[in-house]
Amino acid sequence: MDHFIYRDGTLHAEDVPVSRIADEVGTPFYLYSTATLVRHYRLFDEALDGMPHLVCYAMKAASNQAILRTLAAEGAGMDVVSGGEYARAVAAGVPGDRIVFSGVGKTEAEIAQALAGGIRQFNVESEPEMQQISRIAAQMGKTVPITIRVNPDVDAKTHAKISTGKSENKFGIPIDRAREVYALAASLPGLDVIGIDVHIGSQLTDLAPFELAYRKVADLTEVLRADGHDIRRLDLGGGLGIPYARSNETPPLPSDFGALIKRTVGHLDCEVEIEPGRLIAGNAGLLVSRVIYVKQGADRQFLILDGAMNDLIRPAMYDAHHDIVPVVEPDAGIEQVAYDVVGPVCESGDTFAKGRTMPPLAADDLVAFRSAGAYGAVMASEYNSRPLVPEVLVKGDHYAVIRPRPTFDEMINRDTIPAWL
Ligand SMILES: *Cc1c(COP(=O)(O)O)cnc(C)c1O
């Protein structure tokens, strides 16, 4: 559920007409709904009611300061995967003891940064990384909580590029080597081995792979406890999918996910963390774009938008589907037209949809890509020297630009010319 609905014949973001923002900000831009962000966070928080838990928003999905602040004010923790994300979380007012650090290749500088600023735990992904964290923590006179990310060799049945829990993926340590690796961890200075971490992939639309993974984690908890490790925290990752095509997808709800967690690991008396990203931000954001031209090709019509693959790369990168809707509500029963929806970038991959049936559109019409809040703005680039796409946040009847569109001068002046040139 989101807060982007037609009212009085035009698409609204909460109580603000999308067309008004488009006129004032210019297109393309990302548009987020505060109410949707908060609602989705709370659904996860409530799903784990009754067990000690922390919902750590996977901020790589959408990491604007205003979004982080909105969620932090709700009590959210943050899952970060780089020094830049750690700095963003701290800048948004998230205390270190609510930040978990994930990622397969934490550098020495990133580890030191988090140790100095405070960290809830590192999710360790390999033995060399564990030794590195141990060395730096000991050097700084600190003991830092860690979990070890295990790779449960479970097929998440999602797109190959966002599947992370199979043995051939780069993530985590093989679960059948866990006892050995935990023994090593327990022997190293500067580490407090408190738990287990798992994250099997993104955009999962079925709970079965989660269930397989969490049962393996539950079994491993008992094995490691028998080995003498005080396993008291389970980080169960993120990955719950969202409906990208409204008509035919019904992924499980956060409440179903929470019930599964209680069923699989609830008896272990552990504190639980989850790291949802997409489900919190995905349907809380639109990409709003304007039609530049409608072009008749040899055998098809092209809808040429001012938004492009550099603004939203998911269709090019993951073959992702996004519903694209006109901002002016189409008349019921209007005859649909098939379009190839494309951007102006000089690549054939700059295609959002092929043969998409939509109400007829004309130059200057506004369209909105639904479910664009996650892995949208954060993956945007300035390819073709198209200024980085701006972001706007709505709350009730007001809105604010939370990242302005750079001017051409700002874009150019980021480059520096050597003195010898
Ligand atoms: C990307 C990622 C997440 C979030 O995944 P979503 O599908 O956005 O929920 C959580 N944890 C880790 C370790 C990740 O890499």
From TrEMBL:
Entry similarity comment: Belongs to the Orn/Lys/Arg decarboxylase class-II family. LysA subfamily.
Q: How does it assemble?
A: Homodimer.
The catalytic activity, as recorded, is:
meso-2,6-diaminopimelate + H(+) = L-lysine + CO2
Span of domain Orn/DAP/Arg decarboxylase 2 N-terminal: 35-281
* InterPro entries to which the protein is assigned, alphabetical: Ala_racemase/Decarboxylase_C, DAP_deCOOHase_LysA, De-COase2_C, De-COase2_CS, De-COase2_N, Orn/DAP/Arg_de-COase, PLP-binding_barrel
Give the function comment from the record.
Answer: Specifically catalyzes the decarboxylation of meso-diaminopimelate (meso-DAP) to L-lysine.
Gene Ontology biological-process entries: lysine biosynthetic process via diaminopimelate
Please give the pathway this protein is involved in: Amino-acid biosynthesis; L-lysine biosynthesis via DAP pathway; L-lysine from DL-2,6-diaminopimelate: step 1/1
Return the protein name: Diaminopimelate decarboxylase
Q: Which residues form a coiled coil?
A: none
- State the PROSITE patterns in the record: ODR_DC_2_2 (PS00879)
Task: Identify the residues that bind pyridoxal 5'-phosphate.
Answer: G239, E275, P276, G277, R278, Y375
- N6-(pyridoxal phosphate)lysine-modified residues are K60
Give the organism the record lists.
Answer: Pseudaestuariivita atlantica
Keywords attached to this Swiss-Prot or TrEMBL record, sorted alphabetically, are: Amino-acid biosynthesis, Decarboxylase, Lyase, Lysine biosynthesis, Pyridoxal phosphate
Entry keyword Amino-acid biosynthesis? yes
State its Enzyme Commission number(s).
4.1.1.20
* Regions that span the bilayer: none
Q: Where does substrate bind?
A: R278, R314, Y318, E347, Y375
* GO MF, one example: pyridoxal phosphate binding
The residues covered by the Orn/DAP/Arg decarboxylase 2 C-terminal domain are 30-373
Catalytic residues? C346 (proton donor)
Q: Pfam families under this entry? A: Orn_Arg_deC_N, Orn_DAP_Arg_deC
- Cofactors that this protein relies on: pyridoxal 5'-phosphate
Please tell me which top-level EC class this enzyme sits in.
lyase
- Is Ribosomal protein among this UniProt entry's keywords? no
